[in-house]
Amino acid sequence: MTTIKATCPGCGDVELASPQVRLVVCSVSAWSFYAFHCPTCTDEVRRHATDEVVRLLSTGGVTAEPWDVPAEALEERAGSTISWDDVLDFSLALDDVDLVAEAEGALLRSRRSA
């Protein structure tokens, strides 16, 4: 079995077996990571996995978990950030069924006229 050498920030260099390492390969390579629980202090250590690290861990017997980021998470966003007040206002507006029905009706009317 291959021995994988890694570094714990608190304990220093540690030796791991391939089943002790989790490798997540993301569709956005900057979000790929590997993680392990330090055998000395039991803290979880998580680090960025470059393409080279992915290749080395894979050849060392670590099974890569694919992770596809949803397209919505990668979309460009415009406008201001939604605040907690905006969420509260929206929630209160949902309590008024008439306003929701009116908004839906206006949407349907605008689609028909388009």
Give the topology.
Blueprint: E1 3-8, E2 12-17, E3 21-26, E4 33-37, E5 44-48, H1 51-59, E6 64-67, H2 71-74, H3 84-95, H4 97-113
Parallel strand pairs: 3-6
Antiparallel strand pairs: 1-2, 3-4, 4-5
Question: How does this structure look, described?
Answer:
The protein has 114 residues and is an alpha+beta fold. The chain contains four helices and six strands. The protein has helices at 51-59, 71-74, 84-95, 97-113; strands at 3-8, 12-17, 21-26, 33-37, 44-48, 64-67. The strands form two sheets. A four-stranded mixed β-sheet has the order 5-4-3-6. A two-stranded antiparallel sheet has the order 1-2. The longest helix is centred in the last third of the chain and has 17 residues, at 97-113. 6% of the residues are buried. The mean pLDDT is 91.
Descriptive keywords:
4 helices; 6 strands; 37% helix; elongated; alpha+beta; four-stranded mixed sheet; two-stranded antiparallel ribbon; single chain; 28% strand; 114 residues
Query: Major β-sheet, in short?
Result: 4 strands, mixed
Q: Tell me, what's the shape?
A: elongated
Range of helix content: 25-40%
Strand order, main sheet: write it out. Answer: 5-4-3-6
Runs with pLDDT <50, length 5+?
none
Helix/strand/pairing category: alpha+beta
How many helices? The count is: 4
- Strand residue content: 25-35%
The oligomeric status of these chains comes to: single chain
Taking Cα atoms only, what radius of gyration do you get, to the nearest Å?
24 Å
Helix/strand order, N-terminal first = EEEEEHEHHH
Number of extended strands: 6
Distance between the termini: 67 Å
Mean pLDDT: 91
